[in-house]
Design a protein that fits this description.
Length: 152
């Protein structure tokens, strides 16, 4: 985005959840932020299909995923990840579509940050390495997942 702005000078449109990209408008006279207006009603979001000048201060990603028909298990996992990013306990009702993600340091992942190291579970890792997944039946795979989940 910086290269397109400074070196090429072309028109471009970015749809993103990276708040760092929004900050480019602070350092360039050619960049402007727009967002889609939305109205929050209880635990639901209604998109008003209107562009407004300025960046949004809220993420509606989970609401959009729900509207797209993603399974509740996926939405629940997304809420848990978002709660962890925001420092809220996952069981506390968790963030909804109203989760505030505006600005740096407010739970937004850094664009180029290295991924966090996963928790170490050597016995589970070794079990997974030893499994020949091509020889597992679907029922055996489900049993293995259940066993590994119980160990965690």
């Amino acid at each position: 985005a910086e290269h397109l702005d400074a070196a090429i000078g072309c028109r471009a449109l970015f749809a993103t959840h990276y708040h760092e990209l929004v900050e480019l408008a602070d350092s360039s006279e050619h960049v402007a932020n727009y967002s889609v207006s939305a109205r929050e009603l209880e635990n639901d979001v209604v998109f008003l299909h209107r562009l407004v000048r300025g960046a949004t201060s809220k993420s509606y990603g989970i609401a959009v995923a729900r509207l797209a028909g993603l399974p509740e298990s996926v939405l629940a996992r997304a809420r848990a990840v978002l709660a962890a990013l925001e420092g809220a306990p996952p069981g506390s009702g968790g963030p909804t579509a109203k989760a505030h993600l505006g600005g740096r340091g407010a739970g937004q992942l850094a664009l180029f940050a290295p991924p966090a190291a996963p928790p170490s579970h050597p016995e589970i890792i070794e079990t997974l390495r030893a499994v020949d997944v091509d020889r597992l039946t679907p029922l055996e795979a489900l049993g293995l997942i259940s066993t590994l989940k119980a160990r965690l």
